[in-house]
Amino acid sequence: MFSPEELIPSTPEKTFEISRRSAVNTLGLAGLIYAASSSPAAAFLSMGKSPTVNIGTSSRPAAAAVGRIDLTDLPEEWVQNNRATLVDYTRYLFALKLRQVSPKQVIEAHAKKKGSVWNSLPPKAWWNRMGYTLRVVDRIALEMGVHEVEIISAYRAPSYNALCAGAKTGSWHQANVATDVKFPVKASQVTAAARRLRDLGLFKGGVGGYWNFTHIDARGQNVNW
Which member of 15, 28, 136, 217 has the greatest number of CB atoms within 10 A? Predict the structure, then answer.
């Protein structure tokens, strides 16, 4: 069984910046645009039957974001199970300022059920791990000129992962460093682009190609399948 401390560097955000700088000369202007883009504004979350929760920049400057998110269509039972951290996790996703990956897509990837077992949001101490991986996915989409990314799977709680068809006991999804994604192009193109950018130094991790989606993780070691 893997140790959480061994999954990725202890400061993934800093490591991503270093990796990005090492590749930016090759990756071109799009990378510079990605690094420079930000625009503070208010964002809010509407959660189930609960009142609207404001997520403004006045109380949490680091959470600057543009737009709004409405999660009223999430399963009520799942919302209740994750209510303690849902608002903060949504705020965290907005703070990443992703351009091609929607925070709602990420959250919806967690609101799934296998039999009687619900998946859940990741432990708060592990949020930065997925933040790192999502920035990698966002960068790949940006370089490919793709404006919409579907997040099929992100974090998987162990009990939920055990019921997923084909999932491994030591799946990197359980460590919150892996995501399965679909772009509106052939999956083989996404897989090829992810490997190319990884080999240029954008990140270190696994890239798995499937007929209809691509697995991307930041395990710290390059692996293909």
Answer: 217
Angstrom distance (rounded) from CA 182 to CA 212 = 7
On whether both 103 and 209 belong to a single domain, the answer is yes
Q: Which of 223, 218, 224, 225 is nearest to 19 (CA)?
A: 218
**Tell me: the pLDDT tens digits for 103-137?**
999 999 999 999 999 999 999 999 999 999 999 99
3-state secondary structure of 53: strand
Which of these, 2, 16, 32, 3, lies nearest to 129 by C-alpha position? 16
E-assigned strands of 2-160? 43-46, 53-55, 69-70, 113-114, 117-118, 150-153
Residues 87 and 174 in one domain: no
Same structural domain, 120 and 214: yes
The pair of three-digit structure tokens given for residue 209, joined into one six-digit string: 């190609």
pLDDT at 197 over 50: yes
pLDDT digits (tens, 9 = 90+) for 24-46: 333 332 332 233 333 222 334 44
103 and 192 fall within a common domain = yes
Tell me phi and psi for residue 223, to 5 degrees: -140, 140
Domain ranges, residue 79 = 38-96
pLDDT at 224 over 60: yes
Same domain, 26 and 80: no
